[in-house]
Amino acid sequence: MIKKQLFINGEWVEAKKHTPLLSPYTGEVIANVPDATMEEVEFAIEAAYQARNTMAEMPIHQRATILEKLANLLENRAEEAAILISKESAKPLKDAKGEIARTVQTYKFSAEEAKRINGETIPMDAAPGGEGRLAYTVNMPLGVIGAITPFNFPMNLVAHKVGPAIAAGNTVVLKPASQTPLSAYFLAELMQEAGLPPGGLNVITGSGSVVGGKLVTDNRVKKISFTGSPEVGIGIRNKANLKPVTLELGSNAAVIIDKDVNIEKIIPRCVTGAFSSQGQVCISLQRIYVHKDCYDTFVEKFVTATKNLKVGDPLNLQTDVSALIHRKEVDRALSWIEEAKQKGAKIAIGGTSEGSILHPTVLLEVEKSAKVSCQEVFAPIVLINKVESVEEAIDLVNDSRYGLQAGIYTENIHTAMYASKKLYVGGVLVNDIPTFRVDHMPYGGVKESGIGREGVKYAMKDMTELKLVIFNNN
Ligand code: NAP
Known about the structure:
single chain; alpha/beta; Aldehyde Dehydrogenase, Chain A, domain 1; Aldehyde Dehydrogenase, Chain A, domain 2; 7-stranded mixed β-sheet; globular; Aldehyde dehydrogenase family protein; ALDH-related_metabolic_enz
């Protein structure tokens, strides 16, 4: 049995307490994982705090080299890393492989972006009284970054915090989700090999409220970068006081299908958007609004494609849909389907479960107050509703607590321009599903989908502080 240790100040530290980690798919114990005490969290924060000057003063080319090495080490062990993700989270192996390829990209972008932390010169004599002065800005690292991450992309969402933080000269205390600690400790191992100084990255597993709560309230931690559910994110914001926070939260992402689009062509992409990683993706395609002229064709082809999905063991490369993260999530999802049915929805396919797997489910004619429509479903469930017009669909998309990304398929340039202006979300995808992200683009949401943007360059900006320097040459 694998027994993990905490990673603090560049060393593996035996924890006082451990808890068993269960496979979401088989229910078997796959490891024993540290359940950090307050004292151990304290030790990790202090290590990161003591290392802050070493990281801030490290020449940028050295930081970039460490991140480049990390990316290469991960690329060399990609297969092993993907299997680890698959075991701890039940992410189908083909999706896990895709996540590792993206994680490598995220660290490569971080290495490159480290070299572009530019300030600017300010023409002081543009204002009367500013004559004879030279002024410029520098981007100072903040110090210790508290990174709190979710289970659903355990490598790449960690990379979106660790990569930019190190690139900008900060240190990190990372608290990964309790269900996905193994990939975080794997990262620590690679970071050590890549040559990051002790204290640069510290990994602490344990309860969200204990470890996360301490990171949020400790004065030595200068920023919290959180990805997870809106409920926890809002709680963090309320406790953080003046500490800056980035919150990457949930959504009930939608796509609009206008008349005249080539339905055959877009079906595979829509099915992938709805069901990859069992729908446990923050921009998973949850709501599809289809123009009445092509509604029946769309539904028929979507359901046929859904029937072809392979359900089963996450470690089988053929599997498309596997177990939800916890058995109780299956019960929750089934109760939400039942509620939608009570409100008049029809099940086109799915709506049943097998162990911890929920079969891919397509619902039609769903009332907008049903939870599967207005809340984040985070399960392989998608609704397809008929609309009279694109305008009606835009209103439905915007009638949400969330606003991460939205998509529209249309052949009409005016409709595309109109929708991109009217959709109130962090990102609009024209002729694509909302379930699209590459790792250097600005990414984040409005409303309860969050505050701030990630995407390496944008995250780095929020992990530095602007300092102005003025030389008086008079
Ligand atoms: P979660 O339950 O909110 O947990 C996220 C992290 O917060 C975990 O590490 C968790 O630790 C920790 N935590 C829990 N309670 C805490 C507290 N009181 N104080 C500080 N930290 C605390 O989310 P999840 O179920 O892992 O992930 C799913 C959610 O993440 C979905 O809502 C999804 O949409 C969102 N998400 C958003 C994005 C984005 O970029 N916008 C990307 C991916 C996922 P424990 O695991 O120990 O509880």
